[in-house]
Amino acid sequence: MPEGKFCNKMPVNTEEELKALLGDTGGKQYYEEMKRLDVDKDKLWTTIQNTCKSRIRTWLEICAHCGMCADSCFLYLINDCDPEQVPAYKIQSTLGEIIRRKGDVDNAFMRKTMEVAWAKCTCCNRCGMYCPHGIDMGIMFGYLRGLLYGQGFVPWELKIGAGMHRVYRAQMDVTQEDWVETCEWMAEEWEEDYPGLTIPVDKPDADIMYTCNAREVKHYPEDLAEAAVLFHLAGENWTVPSEGWEETSLCMFAGDWEACKMQVLHVYDAMDRLKPKRMVGTECGHAHRATVIEGPYWAGREDGQPPVECLHYVEWVAEALREGKLKIDPAKRIKEPVTLQDSCNYIRNQGLKEVTREIMSYMVEPGCFVEMNPNGEHNYCCGGGGGFNGIGLFRPQRNKALITKRDQILNTGAKLVIAPCHNCWDAIRDLEEEYKIGIRWSFLKPLLIDMVIVPDHLKPKD
Q: How many CB atoms lie within 10 A of CB 218?
């Protein structure tokens, strides 16, 4: 069967198509159709010839099969050191095999490869730190996901996610009107406690253009309000764009590279239109990677940089605390054992370890901050990155993957975990629901709101 009603090689481009796919609860029909989906071998090999450049081909050739990547992979360790979980094996037996066969692979091979690409790798790239040749497995798995997406072999939830970006330019069905109304609503709700609070929309030449995650708008808009309060207390000249406010990219998880470009250009267009001095993105690791690290290349920017300087939220918080724009009430600092989850996407891939520790020095009473082991750029993935959190088909594998982070947290003795990243926050929430180890978890914003000193001139009048 060349194409199914839901499972096919065509991206979701309309709201009607999106609603139809959402109506297939759990992807039941989708996955049945996938079992009969033909592989367009000519297209697959042509795509590889046109896009698989010397870097990836060199990495595949120079892999020495030394096994040094094995112990670096939390999925290998948590699965009883299964040889098929060795990173080098995973990529050589999938992408390497497709290239060796010149695209001559069948349906069963592609379905098995889909499981490897989304259930046996989170693209955390910890293995790349230990490879003696510097092979970047995350890049190769990202490329493999793109090949699979182009052939229709992509998890149901991620085809929906990529479709959301194509239809709404957001990972959820949040329209421009929904977004602006939410900004107005949150400002009104919180203005009584913080007189003069606004969420400026489309203010040109601001010092900061703030972007966020559509999940915040859809499910917990108080996160947007908390960001507004902290900008307000810090005296920032800031704005949000009416269009181009969504920083995330589920299409990156899906391997829909065309949608990745569409999404990031939407954000860059807002920068060009409003001309802010800087962009600050919310507490989300993959959003930062998609917009700031990978995005310039998808957008074809020759300098490899976004149109304006871009900061992850932890960078802005550290700066605001360092410069005294935000001041912490010492009596309200965290006075219990607390640990910190290091996000792969801005710690390992951008080196912001010291910035996050600087924040801890302001927020946590001396002696109460407990590091995970390992930590920083050596920390393990939360267990749900790279789209793993949201794929129902692979939920048993994901739940097992959470054990590594569970044990790391238990070993700290901390009951509070600070997780300035959406995927990490979700994974830690889920591991508590699954394993009930008695922990709490939080973004930075609500903790800061509780401990920051409100200047007298910004306090409500009695």
A: 16
The parent domain of residue 210 ranges over: 167-311
Residue 397 and residue 303 share a domain: no
Residues present in the chain in total: 462
Q: How far is 28 from 157, CA to CA, in rounded Å?
A: 12
Q: What is the pTM of this model?
A: 0.96
User: 30-55: string of b/e by CB count within 10 Å (b at 16+)?
Assistant: bbebbeebebbbeebbebbeeebeee
- Domain contains 15: no
Burial class (CB in 10 A: 0-12, 13-18, 19+), 454: middle
Specify the amino acid at residue 257: W
d(CA 60, CA 97): 10
Q: What is the pLDDT of residue 67?
A: 87
pLDDT digits (tens, 9 = 90+) for 19-38: 999 999 999 999 999 999 99
Contact 114, 435 (CB under 8 A): no
380 neighbors 339 (Cβ within 8 angstroms): no
Lowest mean pLDDT among 159-168, 362-371, 451-460: 451-460
**Do 285 and 378 have their domain in common?**
no
Nearest to 208 by CA among 240, 175, 233, 179: 240
Q: CB atoms < 10 A from the CB of 100, how many?
A: 10
* 145 located within any domain: yes
Taking only the tens place, the pLDDT of each residue in 317-358 is: 999 999 999 999 999 999 999 999 999 999 998 899 999 999
- pLDDT for residue 166: 97
Q: Mark whether 396 and 425 lie in a shared domain.
A: yes
pLDDT grade for 456, boundaries at 50, 70 and 90:
confident
In a domain, 321, yes or no: no
Is 150 in the same domain as 173? no
* 294 CB-contact burial (10 Å; exposed 0-12 / middle 13-18 / buried 19+): buried
Is the predicted pLDDT of residue 1 greater than 70, yes or no? no
- 3-state class of 333 per DSSP? coil
**Distance, CA of 325 to CA of 327 (rounded, Å):** 7
Distance, CA of 90 to CA of 123 (rounded, Å): 12
Same domain (yes/no): 190, 135:
no
Question: In one letter, which amino acid is 202?
Answer: D
Helix (H) or strand (E) holding 208: strand 208-211
The dihedrals phi and psi of 393, each to the nearest 5 degrees, come to -60, -35
